[in-house]
Structures are given as C-alpha cells and as structure tokens.
Amino acid sequence: LSGEAAKINPRPTKAACFKNGAVEEETFSFLTGVCNVLLCNTGSSKDDALYESIIQAGIQSTYAHHEGDAAPRFDDLLRAFDRLTERKDIDPTRLRTLRDLLQKLIAGPESRLLNEHTDIDTDGQFICYDLFGLRSYDDRVKAAVAAITMRHVRTLAFDGKPDLYKYCLLEEVANLLALGAGFRDLTIETATTGRAHGLSLGAVTQEYDEYRRSGIAGTLNLNSTTKFLMSHKEAANAMTPIIEDMQLNDTEAALFRSLKAVKGKYSELLVRTQNWSPEGGRNVTAKLRFELSPFDYWMVTRDGQDRGKIQELERRFPHIPKAKIIEYLAYGKAAA
Predict the structure, then answer these.
(1) Among 66, 94, 101, which Cα is nearest to 80's?
(2) Cα-based angle 212, 170, 274 (whole degrees, multiple of 5)
(3) What is the pLDDT of residue 3?
(4) Who is most buried in 48, 95, 192, 321, counting CB within 10 A?
(5) 307 and 301 in contact (C-beta within 8 Å)?
(6) pLDDT mean across residues, the chain
(7) How far, in Å, CA of 262 to CA of 276, rounded?
(8) What sign has the CA pseudo-torsion 30, 35, 40, 46?
(9) What is the Cα–Cα distance from 97 to 92, expressed in whole angstroms?
(10) Strand pairing partners for 283?
(11) Alpha-carbon span 322 to 331, nearest angstrom
C-alpha cells in the first residue's frame, strides 16, 4: 500500500451498504471516522460535531446519487459537497472549509492511494498488506489506512465461517502500531479472538524498537504460536530485547545471534513453534536456511533501490504483469 502500486478505496459499493435510502449504520460510522481523520476533524468540541454533521450529510448524498457498480470515490464526495450548498441547514462557511480540505486531499499524493478504485482482492482467504510504502505519508493518512486495513481484516476474520481458514499478514506493521490506541486495540482484539473464527494473523516488522514501544508487542508475542526470527547482525542492539521478550533459552539465544544473511543468496532464520499432538503440545525450535532463486529475491526484496527499479518498470509498462517485470529483472528475459 503506497499509491505507487496497490490502491485501496475505503468505500464499499452502493449495492453492499445502501439500504432503504440510507447507508447502513456500521459502514456509515466507519466512513465518518475515516473522513474525519483525512479532513482534520478529530476533536470533540461542538464545532467539530457540526463539521462532522456536514461530512455525514455528504456521505449520504454521495451514495444516494451514485450510479454504477463501482464504489464511489472522494471525487464523488466533492460533488456531494457541491450539492449541499443548496441546503439551508448547512453552514456555508464550514462547508467551504471542508470542500477546500477535500480538494487539497484529491490534489495531494495520498489521492493515488485512497482516491482510486481498489485493485487488490480483499475477499480472498490469503491477504498480505505490505505497509512499507506508508512511510512517505503523514500520520493522518497512516491513521486512515490503519482503519481501512483493520476493517478488511475484521471482515475477513469474522465472516461467520470458522471452519474456513483465513490468513492475513501485516507486513511492516510497526508503521501503523504507533498511530494510537484505536489501531492497537483493534489489532489486539483480532489477534486474541480471530483464531476462534479460523483466522491466522501474522505481524511482520523490521522495526522492533517501534514495535516494542507500541505497547502491543507483549500481547502479540503471547498469542503467536509460531515465530520467525531473522538475522540482526546489523542491529545488534535489538538482539537483547528480542531474546528477553521471546523468552529464548541459552541455546536458542546462541542460535539467534549466529544467524546470517547474504544478499541475493540466502537468509537464515530461527523458527519457534508448537507441535500439537493427542499426547499434548511441545515447543519446537529449529535453525533454517532460506535459499533464494533470482526470482525469489526480486519477489521479496526490501532493498530500497531494487524496489525502486520494480516500481519504475511498473510505471513505464503498466500493461505488463508484475510477475513478468520481476522475471525480467531476475533473468534479463525480453518478455518483460
């Protein structure tokens, strides 16, 4: 999720949420919250409440007048604000302020991420949200994406089908965990209750200090049945907190400290999991080596320059599948 690659529209389609002439309550509350954050209306004063009432009127008008199967966008909300100028119960000064803020959002870089039609499958059994690209956005946009992401995860988890296994990975979760209690609470709730509904939730981060400071690390560590620890040779100061938090014994700690990674060739990792059997469960720890083919490397690389090469080719050749672009970078094949 960066705007350069995946796009994510916070709004569902009209068919999914507009019933009996109004947006259904849960979606209405969610969209109100997202718009409040993005339009800088996050206070609790009477004035903030009046701004919120205009935002809510705009949301209802957006769906009431929307046509087509695609979900509405912020452009549609802007047109809804224009329609509200005809209403006598809407304060024109506040409406003009909200309209100016919305125009700024549509013209800004966050529009590439949030003002497009969603181009990722949020209804599948396996979803990975890569949050690395959010680093370039301010906390206002990050908070909105946090709310959108967790709504997708909760919809996936609590689908009323506990026998259907669902898998969700939050890549670079530290980018969102520092945003406040709301996102932390939703993550904790999902991590602690999702398993009963058939959800496996994975949290991935290279920013362990931020992850630890978020106040959620203890809960996630406690509720994680499987942990993958990568080499920290270049971040030795993070090793001791990880060893303490994960309660590694002396042998496990020594194995963790010995892990190596050779760019483009292999990465060593320490896997700690629970092996369940009718006789009872037991902890299992193993040191593994993950060897990368050239294609594997370009699929999973976190190197900024290499990711930039992928994004540049995606911009230049938008009609070519990403797999073909990666194949070209890996093997130099002309097919890309």
Answers:
(1) 66
(2) 75
(3) 44
(4) 95
(5) yes
(6) 84
(7) 33
(8) negative
(9) 9
(10) 274
(11) 14
8 Å CB contact between 36 and 79: no
Residue whose pair of structure tokens reads 């509720």 in the numeric block: 223
The DSSP bridge pattern shows strands 227-230 and 22-23 to be unpaired
What distance lies between CA 191 and its chain's CA centroid?
A: 15
Give CA–CA dist 303/333, Å, rounded. Answer: 22
| Distinct helix (H) and strand (E) counts, the chain | 16, 9
Q: Stretch 263-292: mean pLDDT, rounded? A: 83
Nearest Cα to 283, choosing from 318, 256, 312, 248? 248
pLDDT > 80? residue 18 = yes
Six token digits for residue 318: 């938008």
Contacts of 107 (CB under 8 A, 6+ apart): none
- DSSP structure string for 253-282: HHHHHH--EETTTEEEEEEEEEE--TT--E
Segment 95-124, tens digit of pLDDT: 999 999 999 999 988 888 788 877 666 666
Amino acid letter for position 108: G
Per-residue pLDDT at 233 exceeds 80 = no
- Nearest partner of 288 among 243, 228, 241, judged by Cα: 228
**Is it the case that residue 26 has pLDDT exceeding 60?**
yes
Enter the tokens of residue 331: 């093997």
State how beta strands 261-262 and 266-275 pair: antiparallel
Q: How many residues does the chain have?
A: 336
Residues 310, 326 contacting (CB under 8 angstroms):
yes
Query: In this structure, are strands 266-275 and 126-130 parallel, antiparallel, or unpaired?
Result: unpaired
Beta strand ranges found along the chain (DSSP E): 18-19, 22-23, 126-130, 166-171, 199-204, 227-230, 261-262, 266-275, 282-291
